[in-house]
Amino acid sequence: MRPVLAASGLVVALSLGACQDAGFSAAGSARAREPIPPKTVALMATKNMSPRDPILIRAFKKESEMEVWKRGTDGQYALLKTFPICRWSGQLGPKIREGDRQAPEGFYTISMGQMNPNSSYYLSFDTGYPNAFDRANGRTGSYLMVHGTCSSAGCFAMTDEAISEIYAIAREAFAGGQRAFQFQSYPFRMTAQNLARFRNDPHIGFWRNLKEGSDYFETLREEPRVGVCGTRYVFGGQDAAAGACNPKVDPVVVAKREKDEQEVAELVAKGTPATRLVYQDGGQHPFFRETSPSTQLFAEQAQPRPNMGTISRPEALAAAPQEIAIEPKVKPVLLAKNERAKPGAGKPTALAFAAPATDPAPIPTREAAQAAAAPAAPITVASADGDASSYRKLLGNLFGGAPAAPPVAPAALPAADTTAPAVAAISPAAPLPKKVTARLHPTPAAHPVAAAAKVDAPKTDATRPVSAKVETKPAAKAGDAKPAEAKPADGKAPEAGKRTELPNRPRVAASQPAN
Q1: 32, 71, 346, 481: which sits with the fewest CB atoms below 10 Å from its CB?
Q2: Is the per-residue pLDDT at 407 higher than 60?
């Protein structure tokens, strides 16, 4: 029972893989033992290579090409052959998560155990995704292959004929003593033209990191040692393999990087547009769509074209990728323009929905600048006990009362008005009535009789503090306030029909109801 459950579990796990390949087997099949084609062996001889020399494979998505390199007796790699990729899926960019149909990008190690002689796609080898870099970046996925036929769901499909030859070349390299070969996967060839063209792509930072490894290989023709430092690849010699985050870089590699960066800058200065290629679902080399090879690169391929088998999503291949212009995220030049819309203008652009331009503020005078630079006096609750105006500034509008108008200095005030009555212990919890507000901020009376009455009036209630009444007495409702009664200074009752002037109280405050 347990072997049956284990076998069923393996089938389920493999069915979740990107290409749903069959299980691995060391036994192999007859097609896995096919020899290297004689034409390819002859090609090796012309380049001083042997079938059992170590190999290295590179893949390029945009160009849909896969290169097989062999290391010669001098220790340097040389290009043996380039194969057209029949199908790859997704977009340019790395694989992020399981099921996104993305073919991986990065540096991977292929051992003999990753070769599958019993693949459901004729023959295959596992790319090794996810590697240490992918796991450090939180990427998921499994069973991403290089295999036969022409169907891809995150894999590189090469046709049965092409994978048979690649598989035989790798098998002989393992037989010659190579423990594992490096598989480099790129979005495109790392040229200055491509870097300038895709400079605003969201993956440009990752691609520039890949270019560091590409520069090392192309200049030195040696397999770069690959390490992971944080979430970045690190390339170099033995120090990179030992885990150094800043390995020594060969001067030849530095010179190539500087040359490419200068060329990119020149291309951008000449007006090379920043674009992004958007595919329906991956691509295919033109070799499989044209009546004859576009170049002599694949002239040695058998004619007629190899049997492609099942082609995944042929309707997506029928549509060419769209090239979309990508503007930089920050546009300091465009946003700095101060242009107003003209009447009768056409359809608004994206800039029309930005914040409207405003006229620049006038240059302040020296006095205004000094006044603005002077620190403002702090206003605190503690200072409100001795200054009623500061209390009004802090809490005057909190309770719905109208803000008190700033006092206006009269032209000539009597001596009795120069000393305002003291206000003590005003509780901030009680609302301030307008009658009290008027007494705290008296408006000078214009009538001469009122002024005389204020001078001759005895100092009785005017000097008495009002804080106790304000703290305990709630705010009066509208219409309940009555004008206070006042006796004349000589002690006689006022005559009927005559207006009585209230001492030490403004006329406006006596007739205005409290809120």
Answers
A1: 346
A2: no
Catalytic (active site) residue 147: yes
Indicate if the alpha-carbon torsion angle 190, 71, 116, 129 is positive or negative. Answer: negative
Q: Which among 147, 150, 285, 441 is annotated as catalytic?
A: 147
pLDDT at 126: 98
Confidence grade of residue 388 (pLDDT, cut at 50, 70, 90): low
Residue 454 has pLDDT above 50, yes or no: no
- For residue 94, which of 138, 51, 52, 124 has the smallest C-alpha distance? 138
How is the chain split among helix, strand and coil, in percent rounded to 5? 35, 15, 55
- Alpha-carbon distance of 120 to 122, in angstroms, equals 6
b/e sequence 107-146, b meaning 16+ C-beta within 10 Å: bbebebebbbbbbbbbbbbbbbbbbebbeebebebebbbb
In 10 A of CB 235, how many CB atoms?
22
Please report the pLDDT score of residue 19 as a whole number: 74
Local structure of 375: helix, strand or coil:
coil
Q: Is 203 a catalytic residue?
A: no
C-alpha distances out from residue 232 to 132, 136, 191, 229, 434, Å: 10, 9, 21, 5, 71
* Identity of the amino acid at 202: P
How far is 509 from 443, CA to CA, in rounded Å? 9
Choose the catalytic residue: 19, 86, 150, 155.
Answer: 155
Question: pLDDT digits over 191-247, tens only?
Answer: 999 999 999 999 999 999 999 999 999 999 999 999 999 999 999 998 988 889 999
Neighbours of 361 (CB within 10 A): 6
